[in-house]
Write a structure and sequence with these properties.
alpha+beta; 2 helices; 39% strand; elongated
């Protein structure tokens, strides 16, 4: 075997929006409100093998804006995905590469899709703050170690 056959390979094959949903359940009355809504953000990252050495990683971002406890201003969910070629890496490195490295690549695209969708709905764009996917990954690993019976997706 040649040396190049054993070199780790990482490449982006395709980046795409897999799913995008926007809801403004209280329109048109909600546009008359002057109160600033409370924004909550949830993140979830999933990775699946598509082929030998080829993986789809999906970063789902859910942004909910509410006034008080009851009134939803808008809800946006974007599933930003990518197909990545990842070869010749140790099995134990595969999950961190997908959950940290690939998520870091997908996040700016998801952030743009969220901002664009919110603006198109007639609201001030929501600009998501940067995310430390390494810290999230470590946090989820620690939670999984404490709750071995629970099968929770990495968020």
């Amino acid at each position: 075997m040649s040396e190049t056959a054993e070199q780790p390979v990482f490449s982006i094959e395709k980046l795409y929006v897999k799913d995008l949903s926007l809801e403004v359940p209280n329109a048109p009355q909600i546009y008359l409100e002057r109160e600033t809504p409370q924004i909550s953000v949830q993140l979830r990252t999933e990775g699946n093998a598509v082929d030998n050495g080829v993986f789809e990683v999906k970063l789902t971002v859910t942004v909910t804006a509410k006034m008080g406890e009851e009134k939803t201003v808008f809800l946006v969910e974007v599933a930003q995905a990518g197909i990545f070629q990842i070869r010749n890496v140790p099995q134990e490195d595969l999950e961190p590469i997908m959950m940290i490295g690939c998520a870091n690549i997908l996040f700016p695209y998801a952030r743009e899709a969220v901002s664009d969708a919110v603006a198109r709905a007639g609201f001030q764009p929501v600009i998501l703050a940067p995310v430390n996917f390494e810290a999230l990954f470590q946090q989820n690993r620690q939670q999984a170690a404490q709750e071995p019976a629970a099968d929770t997706p990495i968020q």
